[in-house]
Design a protein that fits this description.
Elements: H1 6-36, H2 40-55, H3 59-67, E1 75-77, E2 82-84, H4 86-89, H5 112-115, H6 118-121, H7 124-127, H8 136-140, H9 158-163, H10 174-185, H11 227-236, H12 238-241, H13 254-266, H14 279-289, H15 296-303, H16 305-308, E3 315-317, E4 322-324, H17 330-333, H18 338-347, H19 366-377, H20 396-406, H21 408-411, H22 426-431, H23 434-443, H24 465-477
Antiparallel strand pairs: 1-2, 3-4
Helix pairs in contact: 2-3, 10-13, 11-13, 15-19, 18-19, 20-24, 23-24
Length: 479
């Protein structure tokens, strides 16, 4: 085999290294030109400089055009932990002459900047996005790993409700204001806590607005995979988006879901410095902390209606897969004392869907709970033959047989509840008197599947007074 000419090989390697080095220098030069002379922000500001010169029709305008510099501009607000370079590529946000221009040169709409100057508030506090970026795709941050990308235009009002009182922003943030109204009207407080008030079936929502994308399941989202769109589609069909969700489907329209999402996204738990909090929010927080007791009917609609509906009849909930008991039926309130109603609202039913509403749990004060009790009772007086002093002294073994035959199909073999209320529940056992249990067995519950078992009732399995006493005695052993 012929020996290679090492001198020739060496020469070729040197030429190759030279070519690669020159090519590297060319790429570095191109990168330097792109970064320093052809950068996106520089091109944007260069075009804006030409626009200023074209619009310079007087000495003041010509001076503005002369002083304009093609450089990165940023707002640093330590109090809000914000550093924004948005105004680098949006230099015309405060120039009325740019009202008819296309983005990124258009003047900011409305009078927001008069009350929220960028040098004091920045931009991302309202619009989110990656404030330090100087390339629009990175600033928008929808396709990069950024927790809070730029809010789509239709969700920007959520930022208004973050700082301002949600019931005082209808003029300039009608979507967020309507979202707050829907949150109250539809009884969202029945399952979700906000500021310590609400039910426990759903998660507290105080910081839901800062939930990160990675924490949400997007497998069944049909539209854009954004946090805002996730909330919209989830509100319109909870079970489709989250398998096994117990959230009630309210059949929201798109517009309603859009409004609710604006309010939900405003719940960011953001610690705002005192000098940034507007007066309407201070007043709102004061009235929330020292709220007046609303009428019982309004409290019921806010905290109870989502599950119990009008409360006059029992109904089957297809999501919870069980019957929801009546709470306003005269057949119930005629034998339920005010103390019984009050304690069941306060303590709820541990282990069941009914949460505790006392102040340290659901956040309701005693006067508010008493208002709900008064609304539940309505005009129904206690039954005249209801004797709260009654104590059952029957045969529990006989009662067990009667319970298995007549009651276990709905209440469960051990009283833990199936389609009907749990009789072994601690709160039920502590608050229900023997007289209440006896009267319920005798009379049943009109408007529900619970039939009466007294001998003068049309029940297919009427019980004697002694058998009812045996049954009451056995129910007491379930605790």
């Amino acid at each position: 085999m012929e020996k290679p000419d090492m001198e020739v090989v060496d020469r070729r390697i040197k030429w190759a290294l030279l070519a690669v080095s020159l090519l590297t220098l060319v790429f570095l030069a191109i990168a330097a030109v792109q970064e320093n002379l052809l950068a996106e922000w520089r091109m944007v500001r260069g075009r804006y400089a030409r626009m200023l010169r074209e619009k310079a029709t007087d000495d003041a305008a010509r001076e503005i055009a002369r002083q304009f510099e093609n450089r990165i501009v940023q707002n640093v607000i330590p109090a809000l932990n914000i550093t924004d370079r948005c105004i680098t590529c949006h230099p015309g946000i405060d120039d009325p002459r740019m009202a008819d221009q296309k983005q990124p040169y258009r003047m900011h709409p409305g009078d927001y900047l008069e009350k929220h100057p960028p040098e004091q508030y920045g931009c991302t506090i309202c619009h989110q996005g990656q404030g330090r970026a100087t390339v629009f795709a990175d600033a928008k941050a929808t396709d990069v790993h950024w927790d809070y990308p730029l809010l789509p235009r239709e969700f920007a009002q959520s930022s208004c409700a973050m700082c301002h009182a949600p019931d005082a922003i209808r003029e300039y943030a009608p979507l967020a204001a309507r979202g707050h109204e829907l949150f109250v009207e539809k009884g969202c407080y029945a399952c979700h806590k906000v500021a310590g008030v609400g039910g426990a079936m759903g998660l507290p929502l105080d910081t839901v607005g800062v939930k990160k994308k990675a924490a949400l399941p997007f497998a069944y989202i049909e539209g854009e995979h954004t946090i805002a769109n996730w909330h919209v589609e989830h509100l319109m069909d909870p079970q489709k988006i989250v398998a096994g969700s117990t959230m009630k489907n309210f059949n929201f329209t798109y517009d309603e879901a859009l409004a609710l999402t604006n309010y939900i996204l405003s719940l960011r738990g953001f610690e705002i410095p005192m000098n940034y909090i507007p007066k309407d929010r201070i007043e709102y927080e004061y009235h929330k902390a020292f709220r007046k007791a609303l009428p019982g009917e309004e409290l019921y609609k806010r905290y109870c209606y989502a599950c119990h509906q009008d409360g006059l009849t029992s109904h089957y909930d297809p999501i919870l897969k069980r019957y929801i008991p009546t709470v306003r039926n005269p057949a119930f309130t005629a034998i339920a004392t005010d103390d019984f109603l009050k304690k069941n609202i306060e303590k709820g039913r541990p282990g069941r869907d009914m949460p505790a509403w006392e102040e340290q749990a659901g956040g309701l004060r005693e006067d508010e709970i008493l208002s709900i009790v008064a609304y539940l009772r309505g005009d129904t007086p206690m039954s005249p033959d209801y004797d709260e002093r009654y104590r059952a002294a029957g045969n529990p073994e006989r009662g067990a047989f009667l319970y298995e035959r007549n009651c276990s199909g709905c209440h469960g073999e051990t009283g833990r509840g199936m389609q009907a209320p749990a009789l072994a529940n601690r709160v039920f056992q502590e608050t229900a008197t023997d007289a209440y249990i006896k009267a319920t067995i005798e009379r049943g519950r009109h408007g529900t599947t619970m039939t009466g078992f007294a001998q003068d009732s049309p029940s297919f399995a009427a019980l004697t007074n002694k058998e009812i006493e045996d049954l009451v005695t056995f129910v007491r052993t379930l605790q």
